[in-house]
Amino acid sequence: MIVEIKGLQKVYEGKQRVVAVDGIDLNVAEGELYGLLGPNGAGKTTTISICTTRALPTAGQVKIAGVDVVASPAIARRGIGVVPQYNTLDRSCTIFENIHFHCLYFGFSRAEATHRTHQLLAQFHLTERADAYPSQLSGGLAQRVQIARAIAHRPKVLFLDEPSAGLDPQSRIAMWEAVRALREEGITVVLTTHYMEEADELCDRVAIIDHGRILVEDTPAALKASIGAEKVYSLDLHRREEVATLVETLGKVAGISAAETTDKGVRIFAHSADGLLAEIVQAANPYGLRDLTITETSLETVFIRLTGRDLRE
User: Fold this and answer.
1) For residues 94-113, average pLDDT
2) What pTM was estimated for this model as a whole?
3) Sign of torsion over alpha carbons 29, 31, 32, 35
4) Distance between CA 105 and CA 255 in Å, rounded?
5) Residue 41 — very low, low, confident or very high, per pLDDT cuts 50/70/90?
6) Domains of the chain, first to last
């Protein structure tokens, strides 16, 4: 395993003790695209910060390509590429210079650094913007530059922290394509995200994390299949004082695998939508049905089943 995390814990002491990471264990295989999926504040960024030597753990161990990141941080950093949540490009340098100076920092000769920079500019379709400054780039282009810079020294593992945060849909898709292409270079990718579509689209395996703990880990397909349902019905009810009776009634309907109460009413997990809608509406109408939405089973559905709340909350 190229990334090994054992018993990782991070506690912030103070007036209010905060356990940001609470005993995480995970392994990432070489060449894998691995995702940490969870809401803001779940402990994803703290975990990545420890893996990339930007924070020290309270307990536990992290090894990158066999190197302990606490015992040998300088050696570990040579095998790590990092794209943080926020734009960290040097605003006083051109795009070419941002990548070129990174290569020089990691020991490339000037000739090697120049060759590698031109190579990356072409790879990420940035050649025409080589002389531009970061302030002249869109969010999507700036993110591509950050990824190019992060892999300039040919790291074994690239850590992406919320890589598509703030990007428009078109830029997000372009970023996804850039990340997929990294496999051709043999780079292992670990990313954090709170976008279920991103984790589903990109990752070989996903760990769903909340309150500093990994709740479940598997391939996106296996996680969705574990729900045992294809559709999710969310009912917004006016009368919620006797909703337990409705949940019990719906739970007995053929085709419904589970029903549970929510803050707004009832959530139903069903195997299909065939013939169920009319029966659900008829059962819910006496409770003042105000709204009903139907969605496909997703990684967010998995999170909801595990935590009882939406991933966006």
Assistant:
1) 95
2) 0.84
3) positive
4) 61
5) confident
6) 3-224 (3.40.50.300), 228-296 (3.30.70.920)
